[in-house]
Design brief:
Layout (H helix, E strand, L loop, with lengths): L2 H24 L4 H13 L3 E4 L2 E7 L4 E8 L4 E9 L6 E2 L4 H14 L7
Antiparallel strand pairs: 1-2, 2-3, 3-4, 4-5
Length: 117
């Protein structure tokens, strides 16, 4: 297995985890379930950094996965997920429409207002 596939597999695993967390959030039947699901999203990433670009580090080492988004006036622009492994550059992971929606939903639940940055 090449390093590129290892990182890509990790990106897919992170996206799958996001979709699961968002399903729990959106299907919560009580305030407690909703709060618990949102807490899981808050505790999920290793770090969240924001400049003009926000970076959410989901896992590190080999492989590593991050979300990058440009902060617009009142919304995020160009939201993408990237992966890398030891000795490789950050590579964009091509998302499906469902995965892209999950990325956007995940990011807006984690950082509700891009104007914070």
């Amino acid at each position: 297995m090449s390093n590129d596939n290892h990182g890509k597999d990790q990106a897919q695993a992170q996206l799958s985890s996001m979709i699961d967390m968002l399903n729990h959030l959106h299907n919560a039947e009580s305030d407690k379930e909703h709060d618990d699901a949102l807490q899981n999203i808050f505790e999920d990433p290793l770090s969240v950094e924001a400049k003009k670009t926000i970076e959410v580090l989901l896992c590190c080492g080999g492989p590593a996965v991050r979300i990058l988004a440009t902060c617009g006036e009142s919304f995020f622009e160009d939201i993408r997920i990237q992966y890398q492994d030891w000795g490789t550059s950050w590579t964009d992971y091509e998302t499906t429409a469902e995965e892209q929606t999950a990325l956007e939903d995940y990011l807006y639940n984690l950082v509700p207002d891009p104007k914070m940055f």
